[in-house]
Amino acid sequence: PLALGLYTVNAVYGDTITMPCRLEVPDGLMFGKWKYEMPNGSPVFIAFRSSTKKNVQYDDVPDYKDRLSLSENYTLSIKNARISDEKRFVCMLVTEDDVSEEPTIVKVFKQPSQPEILHQADFLETEKLQMLGECVARDSYPEGNVTWYKNGRVLQPVEEAVVINLQKIVDKSTGLFTMTSSLQYMPTKEDANAKFSCIVTYYGPSGQKTIQSEPVVVDVHYPTEKVTIQVLSQSSTIKEGDNITLKCSGNGNPPPQEFLFYIPGEAEGIRSSDVYIMTDVRRNATGEYKCSLTDKSMMDSTTITVHYLDLQLTPSGEVTKQIGEALPVSCTISSSRNATVFWIKDNTRMQTSPSFSSLQYQDAGNYICETTLQEVEGLKKRKTLKLIVEGKPQIRMTKKTNTNKMSKTIVCHVEGFPKPAVQWTVTGSGSIINKAKETKYVNGKFSSKIVIAPEENVTLTCIAENQLERTVTSLNVSAISIPEYDEPEDRNDDNSEKVNDQAKLIVGIVVGLLLAALVAGVVYWLYVKKSKTASKHVDKDLGNIEENKKLEENNHKSET
Fold this sequence. Notes:
The termini are far apart. α1 runs antiparallel to α2 (545-559). The protein folds into five domains: 8-109, Immunoglobulin-like, CATH 2.60.40.10; 116-221, Immunoglobulin-like (Sandwich), CATH 2.60.40; 228-304, Immunoglobulins (Immunoglobulin-like, Sandwich), CATH 2.60.40; 309-389, Immunoglobulin-like (Sandwich); 392-477, Immunoglobulin-like, CATH 2.60.40. By secondary structure, it is mainly beta. It contains two helices and 44 strands. The chain crosses the membrane at residues 505-527. It is found in: Cell membrane; Cell projection, Axon; Cell projection, Dendrite. It comes from Oceanodroma tethys (Wedge-rumped storm-petrel). It holds the Pfam family Ig_2. This is CD166 antigen.
């Protein structure tokens, strides 16, 4: 490279400077020398080499002591390049007749350290011009330049918004520069989380280069412009007994730490942190909730519904009634939404609600009225009615001769609750072939059966007794030699009820026919009587005495 038409050597600070003597060695060379020129132009000789004696001498120049090396081809090397080595050096070749000189310019370059952003602000406030920090790059030669960046884009100076000052200081002992660029910045809300960095531009032996600092993020403070209230809940709905956690937040930075919460039923706002908790809430907590900053500005609101479910069963608990009595049952629901209601009897879901106009034994059992709010998780209520139907013992006895003609079966059909105890007694000769056998007690009914072989007519007595009453019924049974089929076979209760219904139907038909015949007879009698009266009036009008007499005789006979 040439500088001002002169040969130039570019060297890196701290490296070795190598300067070849660009003169051709002439014939008759006596010696060669190197010198440099002072700023005022006076020479300073630093190295000498004889062409005949081959010896090298270095002048006593303190700056170059132990740093110089002159080769046989008169190339000069300077170790540990310094900024002060940036001079004009001259190679001299001397003969008896002539002195030849060739100058060389030395340029020294030093890469600066990686720039750092120092004295960084803890935070910046909007609408205020504040010092963000200083970008420092040390030990550069020649001096470099500093540029600031925000999110990768160059920050240009803007009056009262972006102010950049660059200061360059040189170290007199080394000649190296330190560049310090300060940045004053007025941030906006959008600068939150912005990345700031700086880049140093410098010159090296091969041209212009850059080094970038690590980016920094400065916290930007700005006032709250909006307040938001939230309901923190694991479920989408709230029911009685739950806890309600309200959270109020502002969009400022730093966010507000205290708020005023306005609760339904409270005249004044409640001062609290950003979270307000209500425990075991009731239905009266339903309403509008608000929060604001402590200066009562920027308010937000939300509506909370506390769901509830009430169930009233009448009657409930254990209820004892007598058979045949009426029992009104009601299950009343009060809820925040439409509720689903269903009945369960003895662990079986019922199709309809229970209604008792005349209680029967089969109506006894455990009844549950249960209701739920399907949209509200965990909201379920139930109440229980334990219905006991009591009745005095009722007895019906039947008898039949068994197919073997050797014995007769006597059955005592018993109804009642609590379950009656049954005893048998026999009046007359005969023996009880086996002990009494009882059927299963279902819906207040069961049967007790004995088998007997009477030698003569006997009377059997069935005694049924519970806590309410003692009932006794007797049945005459003929001797075994006399077959008896006056009673039907033992059958279950359902069949008995069907037979009874059929009997009632037959009786109804017969009674209806009898009533129809009676009405027909009365109509006929009235008709006959009217006919007789009409004939009497006709006879009188005609004045026929004989015919009247004959008619009277005939009428008398007819009436007789």
